[in-house]
Amino acid sequence: MILTAFLSGYFQRIFKPFLICLLVLLTNISFGQSGLKCNAGETILTPPLEMKYTLGGYGARMNRPAEAIHDDIKAKALVLNNGVKKYAILTVDILGLPPNVRPMILSKLADSDWSEENVLIMPSHAHTSLEMFALNDKNIFNNPAIGIFQPELLDFVVNKLAELIKETDKDYKDVKIGTGQIKLEGLNRNRRGDESVDRELTVTRVDLIDDTPLAVLVNWTGHPTIMDENDMWVSGGWPGYLQRELESWIGNGVIAMYYNGAEGDQSVIANKGTSHYEKAEYYGREIAMKAKNVYENIMPKDQIEFKYDYTKIDLPARKPHPSFMQTGGTEYQLSETMIQGLLEQVLPTQTSISTFQIGDLMIVGAPGELIAELGIDVKNKLKKEGILCPVIGGLANEWVSYILTPKEYHQSGYECSVSFYGETLGIVIHDGMLKSATNLIE
C-alpha cells in the first residue's frame, strides 16, 4: 500500500505536467493540419499617365503612350494558410508577365516563406493594359512595335505586387470553400476555325465561417480583344467589367478574381453595344450574370485541404516559326536576323508548371497561350482521374509564347507565327502539365 501510494504520487508529480504539454502540442498540430484560414486583398495597378507607358497586345500601337484611364486595372490576391503551409493566388489585369517579373517579386519577399513553389500569378491578358515587353528587363532592342522597356514601370509593378502579397499575408480568417462548373453556349468560339472550344465556366466561392463572402474566383476562356489597337485608354476590358459587376451584386466587400484559360485560339462573341468599351461592358456583365448563378448554387465546406505542386521543365530550342515574317514579322517590324536574336535574349530555356488543388477545384497553370485542344485534353484526363472541376490557368507566371499542337503549328495564321519553340512545344507543355497535376493525385 505504501509503495503503491508512493508510485502514484511520483507519477502525478513527474508525468502529469509532461502529459499536459503533450496534449497541448497535439491539439495545436491537429488545428494546423485541418483549420484552413484565408485572406484576400487587392491593389490598383494603374500607373500614373505621366509615366507614358504603352498598352499591350498590338504592335500597330508603336509604343504610343496611354491617353487616358477608362477604368482602373487591378491586382488581387487570395492567400491560404492551414498552419503548416500557405499559398498565394494572384490575378492581374494585364496582358502577361515576362520571365523576370515573378523572380523580382519573390526577391522582395526573401525574408518570408514565399517562393516560386507557392506563388501563382495569372494575368487576364487584357489588351488595354500594360505592355508585356515594357516589363522585360532583357528587352534591349528599343523597338516600338514590340514595346520599349521601361525600368520605372517594371519597378512600379513589382513593388505593387510584392506589397499586395505582404499585406494579404496576415489577418487570416476561418473559411469554407466550394466550386461549381457549368457549360455556356454562344459566348466564345475558336478563332482559327477549329472545333475545339472550351465552354466551361468555373466559379470558386470563398466565404468566412459566418457566411460573409470573402472572395470569388472565375475561370472563363477567351481573348480580351474586344478593344483594338486604336483604343488607347487604360482598361481591364471585359474581365474588368465582370469582376466589378460580381463585386457589386454579391456585396459585403467580396473580392472577385478573374483568370483566363487555354485562350490561345479562343475569341469571345460580343454582339451587344456600339463602341468597343460598351461591347466589353455588355460582355463582362453577361459572364458575371452566369457566374453569379453558379455562385449562388455552391455550398461551401469547411475543414477543406489544399495542396500544390511545382514542376520545372526544359523547353525545346528557341526558333522563329517559318511563317513568322508573313504575320508577326510584319506586325512587329522584325527581320529574320533580328527575331532570332530577340528570342535568345528575352525568352527562357526552362519554364515551370504550377498546380494548385483545393476541394473539387484544380488549377493547372500554362506558362503562355495554350490552345483549347490541349487544354481540354488536360482537363478531360484529370476528370477521368476523379478531379471534378479541373481548369487551365492561362499565362501562369510567365509568357513563353503561343503553345500549339504539332498539327496546328504547321498551319498558317498569327498564332503559329508567335509560337517560338518549334512543333514539339505543345507536347512538352501538355505533358508537363499532366505530370504536375498527377503528382497531386498520386
Task: Describe what you observe in this structure.
This protein has 442 residues and is α/β, with parallel strands linked by helices. The protein contains 11 helices and 18 strands. The protein has helices at 2-34, 101-107, 151-168, 237-250, 276-296, 328-331, 336-346, 372-384, 406-409, 414-417, 425-441; strands at residues 37-44, 68-69, 74-81, 86-92, 119-123, 173-183, 188-190, 200-208, 213-219, 233-234, 255-259, 266-268, 306-314, 350-358, 361-365, 369-370, 389-393, 402-403. It has an 8-stranded mixed sheet with strand order 5-4-3-1-6-8-9-11, covered by helices on one side. The protein has a 4-stranded mixed sheet with strand order 13-14-15-17, with helices on one face. Strands 2-10 form a two-stranded parallel sheet. Strand 14 and strand 15 form a beta hairpin. Residues 1-7 and 14-34 have low confidence and may be disordered.
